[in-house]
Amino acid sequence: MSLLAREPGMAEKMAAWGAEWLPAEPLSRHTSLGVGGPADMVRLRDLRRLPELIADLRCRGVNWRLLGGGTNLLVADEGLNVVVLHLVREPDGLKFDGPRVEVPTAANLGTTVMECAKRYLGGMEGLIGVPGTVGGALTMNAGAYGTQIGDVVRAVSVLRGSSGGVEVLRMEDVRFQYRHSSFAADDILLSVSLELPERPYAEILEKIKQCNQKRRASQPINEKSAGCIFKNPPGHSTGKMIDELGLKGTRVGGAVVSERHGNFIVNRQGATASDIFKLMDLIRDRVRGAYGVELEEEVIVWRD
Ligand SMILES: Cc1cc2nc3c(=O)[nH]c(=O)nc-3n(C[C@H](O)[C@H](O)[C@H](O)COP(=O)(O)OP(=O)(O)OC[C@H]3O[C@@H](n4cnc5c(N)ncnc54)[C@H](O)[C@@H]3O)c2cc1C
C-alpha cells in the first residue's frame, strides 16, 4: 500500500511542485545490487520546491530518505515505510570558475571527473569508475587509489533536515573520514564547490586510464554489486581476509562472494536482500573467529 496515497491532498501538491510520484515503487529497480522492496518514490526536478516539499512531509510526520545513484545501498526485501526522494539531474549543471567548479549533487561523479579533466582540472582521477552521484560520493566520502572526494571540497550547500533552511557549509564545518562524513542523516546536499589543481590534460587522462585498468582487473564491474560491502578495519584488508579464509565463491541463494574481489557480494540469479544479509553474517562470523576483528558495513542498509 502506498504511504502517500493515504495523505489527503498529496496528489495535487505533487502536481503543483512538478514532482513525479511513483507509489510503491520497487527499489530493486534503483539500486546497483538489484534488490529492495517497494517504497513511495518522489522525483523532483525543480530544487526550489524542495524546502516546501520537505516542510510538508515533516508536517505530516512522513519520514524520507534521499536516493542518489543507489550504488551503495542494500534495501530490505520488505521495502520501506518512508518516502524515497530522488533529485533529478540538471543537464547543464557544472559551473567553472578558474580552479573552482560548482557541481549539483545529482550530477554523475564520473561525468564530473571527465568534465573537469577537459578544463585541465585534476585531483579526482582516482574517483573515475566510482559509480553514482556527487551527492552520494560526498556523503560516503567516496575514495579510491589515493583520492577521496573530501580532499577537494571547499563548500557544500545543504538543506538542513532539522530546520528546513538552506546553509552553505565551509570546508572547516565538515569532517570527512574514511567512508564517512559529518553531515546529519537528514541533511540534503544540494551542490558542492570543489577546488582542483590545474594539470596537463594528457597527464590527467593517463592517470584516469591507469585507474580504470586497475579497477577492471580487480573488481567485478560487470556484475550487480554495491562495491565493497565492509570497510577495511584499521591495519587489515577485508578483501584479503575473506580471500585467505577461502570464502570467494561462497553462495547463499543468489548472493555470491565475488571470485574477483572478496569484499564484493554480487547478485547472481535473482538474489534477495535476505540472501545478502545472510552471506554478510557468515562472512562477519568467519572473520571474527579467525582474526578477532569486527567488520563494519560500508554499504548503507535501508530497512524500517
Ligand atoms: C562497482 C562498484 C564500485 C565501487 N567502487 C567504489 C570505490 O572505489 N570507492 C568508494 O568509495 N565507493 C565505491 N562504490 C560505492 C558507491 O559507488 C559510492 O559510495 C558512491 O559514492 C555512492 O553514490 P550514490 O549516488 O550511488 O549514493 P547512494 O547509494 O544512492 O546513497 C548512498 C548514501 O548517500 C546518501 N545521499 C545520496 N545523495 C545524497 C544527497 N544529495 N544528499 C544527502 N544524502 C545523499 C544516501 O541517502 C545514502 O545514505 C562502488 C560501487 C560499485 C557498484
Structural commentary:
The protein has helices spanning 10-17, 50-60, 109-118, 134-140, 201-218, 238-244, 273-291, and strands at residues 20-26, 38-44, 64-67, 73-75, 83-87, 95-97, 100-104, 143-144, 147-148, 153-159, 166-170, 176-177, 180-181, 188-195, 251-252, 255-257, 265-267, 300-302. The chain is α+β, with helices and mostly antiparallel strands. The strands form six sheets. A five-stranded antiparallel sheet has the order 6-7-14-10-11, with helices on one face. It has a four-stranded mixed sheet with strand order 1-2-5-3, with helices on one face. It has a three-stranded antiparallel sheet with strand order 15-16-17. A hairpin with a 2-residue loop joins strand 6 and strand 7. The relative contact order is 0.13. The structure holds flavin-adenine dinucleotide (FAD). Residues 32, 65-73, 105, 130-133, 135-137, 139-140, 142-144, 187-189, 219, 221, 225-227, 300 line the site of flavin-adenine dinucleotide.
Q: Within the largest sheet, what's the order of strands?
A: 6-7-14-10-11
Helix/strand structural class: alpha+beta
Element-level helix/strand string: HEEHEEEEEHHEEEEEEEHHEEEHE
In helices, the fraction of residues equals 25-40%
Radius of gyration: 20 Å
Instruction: Assign the CATH topology of the largest domain.
Output: Uridine Diphospho-n-acetylenolpyruvylglucosamine Reductase, domain 3
> How would the global form be characterised?
globular
Stretches with pLDDT under 50, minimum 5 residues: none
| CATH architecture verdict of the largest domain | 2-Layer Sandwich
